[in-house]
Each structure stands twice: as C-alpha cells, then as structure tokens.
Design a protein that fits this description.
5-stranded parallel beta sheet; transferase; Rossmann fold; alpha/beta; ATP-binding; 5 strands; 9 helices; nucleotide-binding; binds adenosine-5'-diphosphate
C-alpha cells in the first residue's frame, strides 16, 4: 500500500520545504497543491473553466510564486466548484507507489483523510512574513499584512477551510532551522513506516 504524507498549515510556515525534503529522502512523489490554485488564479477568466482546463504546463508559468499570485490563489480557492474540479487529480496523485507527499491547506482534512502521516506546520506570523519577504525580496511589514489576510480568507471559507486534522502532528518551525524541522519530520515518517504491517 502506498504511504501518503499530508502536510497542511498557514502560508510560508515551511510546508513545501519539509515536503520536498521528505520526498527526496524517502523516494516519494511530491505535489505542491498550492500551485494548482496559483495557476487557476493566474489564468484569469472564469476560475471554474480555468480549473477544468488546467494542464501540467500551466504549473510552470513564471510568476506563480509571487505574493500577488498567492492572493489571487486564495480568492479562487474559496470557490467550491474550483476545489471540486481539483479533488480527483490530487487523490490519484496521493496513492502512487511507493508514496506521495502533498502539501496544502486541506490535504489531511479533505483530500487524504486516510493519510499515514499528517503534519500541521505552523510558525509565528512575523517569522513566516520575514522568511517569505526574504525569499521574494519584498518588504516584511507588507508581507505580514498579506499573509494574515490570506490566512484569514483560507481559514474562514465555508469549503475545506484551513484546519489541522484532529490526528495531525503539529510542527512549529519558528525556532527551528530547516535542517532541524526536516529532521523532526523524517523521524515521524520513520516511526510510522516502522509501524506499518509487513507486505
Ligand atoms: N525552519 C526554517 N527556518 C528558516 N527558514 C525556513 C524554514 N522553513 C522554511 N524556511 C524558508 O521560509 C520560506 C517559506 O517556506 P516554504 O517551505 O516555502 O513555506 P510554505 O510551503 O509553507 O509556504 C522559504 O524561503 C523557506 O526557505
Ligand atoms: N490545498 C490547498 C492549497 C492551497 N490553497 C490555496 O492556495 C493559496 C496558495 O497556496 P500555497 O500553498 O501556494 O501558499 P504558500 O503557503 O506557499 O504561501 C492558499 O492561500 C490557499 O488559498 C488551498 O486552498 N488548498
């Protein structure tokens, strides 16, 4: 049975960094589900039609990592029909052998409620804003306001709001280096893998 890791949490908490490192370490596939919503937001026009028409090439568009693309993503992500269109692709991705890591907002709660490991990655607001501002070369104060606005929209929407699944392990990266955060996540995966029944 494939091993699925669900990683959720607010903006710039370190989800993607941990997801990529776990995928590399364990030879699993990785899907950054935020890119799906960023691409739909960037396509313009009717968001539901854009979600239906989404191709792998759309995920390579330049500019998808920008703060503006993040804001546009969180607006289209609040539309239930947009989310519904993207569910099957994510669920199929999640069950590939030997395992898959998906990071987003609703992976542990909606997309993969049966995931073998669920992480909910958090960090202090100011820390997240400083890290993302450094990454994009923008002003940290403006970034803080943008992240808070986006987190509030993601947490307050009716469909698949940003939430920790009841069985998620919370990982606070505020005081951790990337290596420390990854080491904690690796230890959790090893623990769960060793508890798996033999094939
Ligand atoms: N533990 C950490 N310590 C310092 N910087 C980090 C840490 N984790 C992530 N970062 C940096 O913070 C930024 C946001 O991390 P990222 O993994 O993209 O977050 P998310 O996927 O949750 O949006 C990136 O520039 C990343 O390199
Ligand atoms: N599974 C997901 C992933 C992202 N999203 C939306 O897409 C936006 C961008 O997600 P992201 O993961 O790329 O954002 P960052 O955490 O990297 O800043 C989020 O603010 C959410 O509105 C979502 O609704 N569900």
């Amino acid at each position: 049975m494939p091993f699925t890791i669900a990683i959720d949490g607010p903006a710039a908490s370190g989800k993607g960094t941990i997801a990529r490192a776990l995928a590399q370490r364990f030879g699993f596939l990785h899907l950054d589900t935020g890119l799906l919503y960023r691409a739909v937001g960037a396509m313009g026009g009717d968001p539901v039609a854009a979600a239906r028409a989404l191709t792998p090439e759309d995920l390579l568009r330049p500019g998808l990592r920008s703060a503006e693309a993040g804001q546009a993503a969180s607006r289209v992500a609040a539309i239930p029909e947009v989310r519904a269109v993207l569910v099957d692709f994510q669920r199929r991705f999640a069950v590939q052998e030997p395992g898959a890591v998906l990071d987003g907002r609703d992976i542990g709660t909606v997309i993969c409620p049966g995931a073998q490991l669920k992480l909910y990655v958090v960090a202090r607001d100011e820390t997240r804003a400083a890290r993302r501002a450094a990454e994009l070369g923008v002003d940290p104060t403006e970034m803080l306001a943008q992240l808070r606005e986006r987190d509030a929209r993601d947490a307050d929407r009716a469909t698949a709001p940003l939430r920790a699944a009841p069985d998620a392990v919370v990982l606070d990266t505020t005081a951790l280096t990337i290596d420390e955060a990854v080491a904690r996540a690796v230890a959790l995966v090893e623990d769960r893998l060793s508890a798996q029944p033999a094939p």
